[in-house]
Amino acid sequence: MTLNDTLIEAKNLKMYFPVLRGVLRRKVADVKAVDGVSFKIKRGETLGLVGETGCGKTTTGRCILRLYRPTEGQILFEGHDISKLPERRIRPRRLRMSLIFQDPFDSLDPRQSAGNIVGEPLKVHHVVNNNREYRARVEELFRMVGLDLSMRNRVPHEFSGGQRQRIGVARALACSPSFIVCDEPISALDVSIQAQIINLLQELQTRLKGLTYLFIAHDLSIVRHISDRVAVMYLGRIVELTDSLTLYENPLHPYTRALLSAVPIPNPFVEEKRERIILKGEVPSPLYPPDGCHFHPRCPMAVPECSQVVPPLRDIGGGHEVACIRL
Amino acid sequence: MTFLLKVDNLKTRFKTELGLVKAVDGVSYYMREGEIIGLVGESGCGKSVSQLSVLQLIPTPPGEIVDGEVVFEGCDLLKFSANSPEMRSIRGGKIAMIFQEPMTSLNPVLTIGQQLTEMMESHLNMNREAATKQAIELLNRVSMPEAARRIAAYPHQLSGGMRQRVMIAMALSCNPKILIADEPTTAVDVTTQAQLLELMREMVVHFNTSLMIVTHNLGVVARYAQRLYIMYAGRIVESGTTKDIFANPRHPYTIGLLASVPRLDEPRGRKLVPIDGLPPTLINMPPTCAFLPRCAYRVEKCQHEPWPELKLTDGQHYTSCYVDTREK
Amino acid sequence: MIREGAVPAGVMEVPPPQSEVRRIAKVFFSRKVAVVGLIIVVAWVLAAIFAPHFTPYEPYKSDLDNALLQPSREHLLGTDLIGRDTLTRIIYGSRIAFMICGLAVGSAALIGSALGLVAAYYGGILNMVIMRLVDALMSIPMIVKALLIAALLGGGITSIVLAIGFVLTSVYARLMHGVALSVKERDYVTAARATGAGNLRIMLYHILPNSIAPLMVQMTLQLGFALLIEAAMSFLGVGMSPPAAAWGSMISTGYEFLISRPILCLAPGLAIMSLVFGFNMIGDGLRDALDPRLRGTL
Q: Are the C-beta atoms of B284 and B19 separated by less than 8 Å?
């Protein structure tokens, strides 16, 4: 296991959800949640995936974990294509990949104790040989995430939001995965608690060599802080992908620039002087995406050609990928 | 100077199974005409309850406004009962509120046109025709695409951003003096958030309305608010101009908040410093400072003395803390 | 390592946890009617268990010399056509009542929930087939269903249990199906799938325990219902046949003496009524107590 080899690769990933109408459940349209997404994640890296509602980032995350069967495209995990494998062939790989959820209230089974929730993956994959080892591992996980061991028999509703999220993290770590998809792990938490969880995730990555994150969020400040590279999604496609430094200092895609200018900065002196790009209109429904470049109806740089051509995600130098024909 | 609104020592309590919750525990603030004020705090700090108390929208079996004055245009609103004709004409008429979740604050069985005209008919005594024309005008003003057609739409047929615009249109329909926006940005995307806030700011400038933004987002108030009130556990712990508070935060909670959020204007690697512990439950609180268990600046005095009053530090900057945090 | 904070985790934000069982019990016992219902049912349960100790007579021994006696000090409820003490038979009848109701409801709940759960979980064609079948069965009047099964299987306790169970199954299938469908969408079920848990594990460990509450309420309510069906069946002659001391068949045999010895019908009738009432009140109390509003955080 060497650091810096590609752990995850998505190739032209597409996930369409059919819309069925009528008694005979005939398909009338597709919700094109993910519409041709490609990226690589190196072992030990954190790739941030940002975008607004309907951009498909959550669906992408779940596709990568094969919680959906992608409509098209490939997903390479540790070099093997898992996009078309049946569930029973995926299952053994599941201990090396896991998911942290957004909602700390809904992601824990209300009827199970914290210890059981954290230990379930151990049982599912038969990672431990006896009860003693099981208990020891659960204790170790509790300690790793900063949870008090005495609370192992409590049920979720007896914990605060931040603590529940820690339980979720512990569960995700149970079988020592190499890859964790963090799906908006802090959006549902109070501001003063968010930093605790972010720090925890970063510390874990330092301690557990080779732990790789796909960090999905809509909060750009948080994503910048924790990610090595960032992909910006709009309506099912990636519009820009580069390392965090470049993205925030030299954003090229007009959507990225509008997105960044819309993020308020807690500094009134800076805010006074900032350029504000206010987009017109709203994000279209993924049922009826615009032709060609999905962003063209709202783009300040659009030309007629933009509605006819789907811009490919091109590397314009130094690993900076942008999907725009005007650049 | 005359204030448009002056709230003095407002206290609102809730009786619950587990004890008395002092949701708002002596909150005072003021608003002048044409100002944009920010009320900042996390969930459970009492900021929404304080605004609902101003409008007397607190459900009164468990809740009760037990003390304080709410002086609006020279008149104490708490003198009137919640259902009095005076309060009803103030709500929506002089003081309007926009809520966080537009789906639940819009009536799902009425078209947005009906909801708009209803407000204008009752507050401004307009007839149906005039109100409808005005409604379309308002929708245009809030950049609602195809306003004349959309006026016959039902809330569920609109997107989240559009519903928020309807709420803004409704709130502004009767030319209120004060607009209260309760977490206006939480349920919408960043780009829509930017649109809506710009819109509200334009409305403020255009109509000379005052705007109160209730939020937990420090960036939003940095961008829009002129003055800030920071709330914690039912009280205001720091107040002053936005620039002053961000340049020289005094209260340990404010300092903690600023240190714990990542920002685009600082170098990427800055370590986030979280605030230890958890926000309090507000049930049966001790008389000492509510932030004490989480405070990095605490001293011996804080353990014995009651929660400090707001004290002037400089200019208009007030803070409620015994410690001079500049020294650390 | 990151500590949760200066204060021990859990102290500040969440109040001391009240055990969920205690909370449910508290609500339940605050409803007077539920408590009354509980007392009634417990009384009958004790009667059923300790029947031989309470009863001075044999329920099945005939004593023609003492036939059709009026209620007296020796026979508190009189005797029936062949001299058996009515009170004794009523008390022994509770055993049959509980056995039949318990088995019928239990098996209906088991099979019905299994069907509903599997249908909801797998979806697709399986779901359609199972649920349409359930719908079709529900459209047949229940007496017809009961009579059909009883007739097919002959008399006796097994056939009655199966007949009543058959009638009740659809309700559980429908109920479980509805609840399971919504539970299936919860994040914690997705989490279990992401962990790699198998279908069976997800259904039994995650979906079932979280879907059971409404079922429990339904079960207690249906106990009374099952008893009524049994009584009707026995009355119609397809249930427990004499000499069994089943309340329904006691009404049936006592029917011809309705005018002369009304107690022969009245006693079993009141017994049925009281037990059904007890079950229903417990069911109502349980429904209130298990109300999801009261579960969960402050």
A: yes
Question: Contact, C277 vs C37, CB < 8 A?
Answer: yes
Minimal CA–CA distance to B87: which of B107, B65, B102, B103? B65
Q: Which of A105, A112, A155, A158 to mutate to test the interface with C (most CBs of C within 10 A)?
A: A158
Provide, as residue numbers in chain A, all residues whose Cβ is less than 8 Å from the Cβ of C191.
Answer: 99, 101, 107-108, 168, 171
Question: ipTM score here?
Answer: 0.86
Q: How far is CA A60 from CA A91, A299, C171, in A?
A: 19, 24, 39
Reported confidence tier of residue C9, pLDDT bands at 50, 70, 90 = very low
Q: Which amino acid is at A117?
A: I
Look at residue A311 in the predicted model and tell me its pLDDT: 92
> For chain A, what are the domain ranges?
6-322
The domains of chain B are located at 1-94+178-328, 104-175
- Residue pairs between chains A and B whose CB atoms are closer than 8 Å: 129
- Cβ atoms C143, C234 nearer than 8 A: no
Are A163 and C9 within 8 A, CB to CB? yes
CB contact under 8 Å between A162 and C201, yes or no, is no
B301: closest CA of chain A, how far (Å):
25
**Residue B190 near residue A259 (C-beta atoms within 8 A):** yes
Judged by CB atoms closer than 8 Å, whether chains meet at A192 and B274 is answered as yes
Give B273→chain C minimum CA distance, Å: 11
- Roughly how many angstroms between the first and final C-alpha of chain C, as a whole number? 30
Return the residue matching tokens 């992909």.
Answer: A231
The residue of chain B with its CA nearest to that of A195 is B274
What is the per-residue burial (b if ≥16 Cβ within 10 Å, else e) of A163-173?
bbbbbbbbbbb
Q: Are B277 and C298 within 8 A, CB to CB?
A: no
Residue type, B188: V
Segment B88-107 shows an average pLDDT of 85
Range A16-54 burial, b when 16+ CB lie within 10 A, else e: bbeeeeeeeeeeeebbbbbbbbbbebbbbbbbbbbbbbb
Measure Cα distances from A263 to A258, B3, B246 in Å.
Answer: 9, 32, 17
CB contact under 8 A, C5 and B277: yes
**CATH no., domain A6-322:** 3.40.50.300
Q: Which pLDDT score is estimated for B309?
A: 86
Closest Cα in chain B, distance from residue C287 (Å): 21
pLDDT band at C62 (very low <50, low <70, confident <90, very high): confident
Task: Report whether B163 contacts B187 (CB < 8 A).
Answer: no
Which residue, chain included where needed, has tokens 């805010």?
A271
> Which domains can be identified in chain C, with CATH numbers?
39-45+102-291 (1.10.3720.10)
Q: Which CATH class is domain B1-94+178-328?
A: alpha beta
